[in-house]
Amino acid sequence: MHTYSEHLKINKNSWDAASERFFGRTALPDYGPYAPSENQLQLFGEIAGKRALEIGCGSGHSIQYMLNNGAAEVWGLDLSSKQIEAAKRVTGSNSQVRLFESPMEENPGLPDNYFDVAYSIYAIGWTLDLSQTLANIHRYLKKGGTFIFSWEHPIHSRVIFDNGSAQFNECYYEEIPALHKAWKPQPAIFHHRKLSTYINELVSSGFMVEKVIEEVEWPAAARGNETTWYSDLKANYFPATMIIKSKKL
Ligand SMILES: C[S@@+](CC[C@H](N)C(=O)[O-])C[C@H]1O[C@@H](n2cnc3c(N)ncnc32)[C@H](O)[C@@H]1O
Fold first, then answer.
1. Which of 172, 200, 226, 230 has its CA 20 to 30 A from that of 109?
2. DSSP secondary structure string, 6-74?
3. Which ligand 1 atom is at minimum distance from the Cα of 104?
4. Alpha-carbon torsion, ordered 179, 138, 71, 128, to 10 deg
5. Residue 154 CA from chain centroid, whole number
6. CA atoms within a 13 Å half-sphere pointing along the CA-CB vector of 12
């Protein structure tokens, strides 16, 4: 039986090893595979002059997007030292940016009631403790502040597409941390959660859910065939990505 800190170590090593492969791969204005983009959705509204915080900032490309749109400050945190190094390279020595190498489950010294907007692009679901992570984000935001995240739709990892048909290969209701079946090159711990769990945890952490997006947007070119994790074939049946916008009450 692994503990929280052992799981965190496994995921840090895994993300350090995967960092290069994910350089700029899932970043604003894109929300993730088969999702409509921020250009279409306009969930953030006016970014100019805002203080923004990114949870799981990866290679820093979304931070750069926020700066390009006039954000006053953008702070980012990420578990992986390699990802933070990449984010430093991408955002340069911009004095409006502050980066923290830290698990999202812990507070590396971020201020309370400071940010207008917090966001997370395909990272929040890596948390090993969703309620603690949401409690942290709630503290960092000002009252009325916005929290937007995208993540893999919880149905997506439960279904495989094989021989022309979609089949459930894992239980949708199961909510336990487990080794991710398709993750390479090093093992990673993935905690599956139901869509209702994300919504209910947001509500019990003091957020009001404003929008849930499950719409599918087709990329110009096919992404992959039935053997790839994200594919046109799967997207015919269920969303790859979900996006949730909420507000701190
Ligand atoms: C798919 S990437 C996000 C990509 C990011 N949007 C970008 O533009 O590069 C997921 C990120 O979550 C980070 N991560 C994983 N577990 C984490 C945790 N417990 N706390 C903080 N960050 C974590 C990984 O290091 C990785 O950078």
1. 200
2. HHHHHHHHHHHHHGGGGTTSS-TT--STT---HHHH--S---TT-EEEEES-TTSHHHHHHHHTT-SEE
3. 20
4. -10
5. 13
6. 15
CA of residue 176 relative to chain centroid, distance: 18
In this predicted model, what pLDDT tens digit does every residue of 40-64 receive, in sequence order? 999 999 999 999 999 999 999 999 9
Per the structure block, which two tokens stand in for 29? 């204005």
Residues lining ligand 1, Cβ inside 6 A: 11, 15, 22, 26-27, 56, 58-59, 61-62, 78-80, 83, 103-105, 121-123, 126-127
Say how far apart CA 81 and CA 19 lie, in whole Å: 9
In single-letter form, the type of residue at position 218 comes to: W
| Half-sphere exposure at residue 129, Cβ-oriented, CA atoms within 13 angstroms | 15
Q: What is the CATH number of the domain that holds 239?
A: 3.40.50.150
Domain count, the chain: 1
Q: Atom 20 in ligand 1: which residue has the minimum CA distance?
A: 103
pLDDT tens, residue by residue, 132-164: 999 999 999 999 999 999 999 999 999 988 887
Which residue type sits at 93? S
Domain hosting residue 226, numbered range: 4-248
Closest CA to 33 of 25, 24, 22, 44: 25
Residue 96 has pLDDT above 70, yes or no: yes
Residue found by looking up tokens 């994790």 in the block: 229
**Mean pLDDT of the region 162-172:** 87
